[in-house]
């Protein structure tokens, strides 16, 4: 993680339902250290540590009979191997550790250095280097701003609608996707222009990878899409296996909590799940719906606008309480702010007024006079009470 990293979503939409944030008041966007502290506090509060086997590497997970699983692990401290049998397995190894690089024609011709955002820490090593950043997600935008302070040649290659509205410093050049790397090592963009660079930073996301899963588990990963999963959780081929937090563009903490509760409900009451044939049919229909909308297969795990419906699909059959609408609206408001005002969105502080309304405070105005103007925005789907507050 880079040193200046702060969350892309407000902490009000980044918490487990039974453990609100209390360690950082008056700020909505947290540092990596503060998020880590929240997780540590959560583990300590619920006494989770005794149930965690630290320094153990999972070597393999394979089915035993119809419903059980053999998990083989290596104790990294002693070097000893152990084998366990479980009635159910939840896969929680995350999906932000194996870098995904852009596939560039002629990349073998590039004479400079290539780095993935996973290995970026700070701007200083890129001082005076001609730098190409590929990808305009939040990390790509963050790094473009940072590196522009130490070099005069900084190019962001992207295919988004919003990057042009970000408000980069004048030295930042926006370019379309890379077409190819030419024989002389220069980069040719899809607009036909060529440029030379010392370094390429790939801000192109990560790969879903499960090297410990046996083929008999029934799970495949093709074009970075994990399948077949029912409700993006349950292994349809073997329903005693679940996957948590593989979704993107979702209020991860809250949704992950609902996902694990949903899985536990199905273990206690298997009749909550349709037949295997019905689950496969529903999944096929969902995949076709996304394909018809032009969604790439590698983006099938993105929820975005469909979060509310997804949460309802988990809660309705199990009787679970859904994510409070006020928190979901804060999530949508924060999510939209990333792309509508990337340069300034982390100055926002969300204050919940009641179960229906919240205000948004600009922290740069925190020392000014009391409230100057308040207006509602009924046309905004997030339902925010947009407050320009001077305190």
Automatic annotation (TrEMBL):
It holds the Pfam family FMO-like. The keyword Flavoprotein applies. Its cofactor is FAD. Gene3D superfamilies: FAD/NAD(P)-binding domain. The keyword Phosphoprotein does not apply. Belongs to the FMO family. PANTHER family: DIMETHYLANILINE MONOOXYGENASE. This is Flavin-containing monooxygenase. It comes from Rhynocoris fuscipes.
């Amino acid at each position: 993680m880079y040193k200046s990293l702060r969350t892309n979503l407000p902490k009000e939409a980044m918490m487990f339902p039974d453990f609100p944030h209390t360690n950082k008041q008056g700020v909505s966007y947290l540092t990596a250290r503060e998020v880590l502290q929240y997780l540590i506090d959560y583990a300590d509060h619920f006494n989770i540590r005794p149930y965690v086997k630290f320094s153990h590497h999972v070597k393999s997970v394979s089915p035993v009979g119809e419903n059980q699983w053999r998990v083989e692990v290596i104790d990294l401290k002693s070097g000893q191997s152990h084998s366990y049998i479980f009635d159910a397995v939840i896969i929680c190894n995350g999906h932000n550790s194996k870098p995904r690089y852009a596939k560039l024609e002629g990349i073998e011709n590039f004479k400079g250095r290539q780095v993935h955002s996973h290995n970026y820490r700070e701007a200083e090593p890129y001082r005076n280097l001609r730098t190409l950043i590929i990808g305009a997600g939040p990390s790509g935008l963050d790094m473009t701003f940072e590196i522009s302070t130490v070099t005069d040649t900084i190019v962001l290659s992207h295919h988004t609608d919003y990057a042009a509205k970000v408000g980069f410093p004048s030295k930042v050049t926006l370019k379309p996707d890379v077409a190819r790397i030419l024989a002389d090592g220069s980069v040719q963009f899809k607009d036909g222009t060529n440029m030379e660079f010392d370094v390429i930073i790939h801000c192109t996301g990560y790969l879903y990878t499960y090297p410990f899963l046996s083929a008999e588990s029934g799970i495949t990963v093709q074009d970075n899409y994990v399948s077949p999963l029912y409700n993006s959780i349950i292994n349809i081929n073997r329903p005693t296996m679940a996957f948590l937090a593989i979704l993107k563009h979702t209020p991860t903490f809250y949704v992950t909590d609902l996902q694990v509760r949903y899985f536990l409900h199905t273990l206690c009451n298997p009749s909550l799940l349709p037949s295997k044939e019905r689950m496969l049919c529903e999944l096929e229909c969902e995949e076709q719906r996304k394909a018809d909308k032009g969604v790439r297969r590698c983006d099938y795990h993105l929820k975005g606008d469909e979060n509310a419906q997804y949460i309802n699909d988990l809660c309705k059959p199990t009787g679970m309480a859904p994510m409070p609408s006020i928190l979901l609206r804060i999530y949508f408001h924060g999510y939209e702010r990333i792309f509508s005002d990337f340069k300034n969105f982390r100055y926002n502080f969300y204050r919940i007024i009641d179960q229906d309304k919240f205000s948004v405070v600009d922290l740069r105005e925190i020392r000014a006079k009391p409230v100057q103007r308040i207006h509602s925005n009924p046309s905004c789907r997030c339902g925010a009470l947009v407050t320009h507050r001077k305190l």
